[in-house]
Amino acid sequence: MCNHIIAAIHGTSKGVSGVYMLATSKKVKMINHISIQPENIFLRRFVTEFVILETENEQPLRKEFVPKNGMVWALTNLSVTIHNSQYRNFLIGIQTEPLPMKWEKGKGVFVRFSPYGMSRFTTIQIDKFANTIIESDSVWGNKANELNNCLLSHTNLKENISLIEDFLIARIRKPSDIEQAIFDMVDTWDLNDDLSITELKQTIPLSNRQLERTFKKLIGVNIQSYRRISRFQKAFKQMQFEYNTLTDVGYNSGYFDQSHFSRDFKFFTNYRPNHFFEKADFYRQLNKLIRTSSAV
């Protein structure tokens, strides 16, 4: 079955790649990283990217998963230890605080869903996943394990991404009018976080209580928590990719109080902004090099 599917797939994958070198007191650890957008245009609203990650370190790599404004699906041949349990094919629900992980040597594909993306591929309320780690087969049955085994048996990146896309497209659910209106509200917020809830909910025929309840089912957290995570993520990305001062980062991300920015950043990463900003310079240089190379 796996070979039959792959035989119909052709072409090359486009994405941003790079090699990350993490300096530690013991040794230098290597992380190969590739980020790819979905080929299927319709899928792009629900899946923001596929991240292919390969660790070459002999010793386990300790990393903290910082909160993101959407769920993540990991399909790997490496062992990931979270809360003293080991996983290979699993879903990370939306997190409201940093999640410590330990990575063994290996390779994996990480599917990053948009804030409401996961709601299109399951009938389970997304708030049931919040702050949890769930085996993928508990959502999609043994088909999820079959897919991961199929990915592990082939090394062609284009083929693997196409297999994941086909798996998701076969399970996609059309949103109702109310769900679509909430998705549009989230997209509008992400473009302009100055807009108030009162302004945005005018087009949604729900009471405040109904809106909060429906939003949480689709996104995983309530509106206030989502906006807090989304604002933090905007600042976090700027600190990794741009050379703005911390004051500019806070202001551009919707923080009008620097102490508020500092508190949120510390809460979501366990680092103060200035500490992380110093460490992030290496990654900003690397990302600039990667973007320049990919444009050639």
From TrEMBL:
Pfam families noted in UniProt: DUF6597 (PF20240), HTH_18 (PF12833)
Recorded superkingdom: Bacteria
Transcription regulation as UniProt keyword: yes
GO MF term (any one): DNA-binding transcription factor activity
Statement: the UniProt record of this protein carries the keyword DNA-binding: yes
Domain HTH araC/xylS-type: 190-279
Protein name listed in UniProt: Helix-turn-helix domain-containing protein
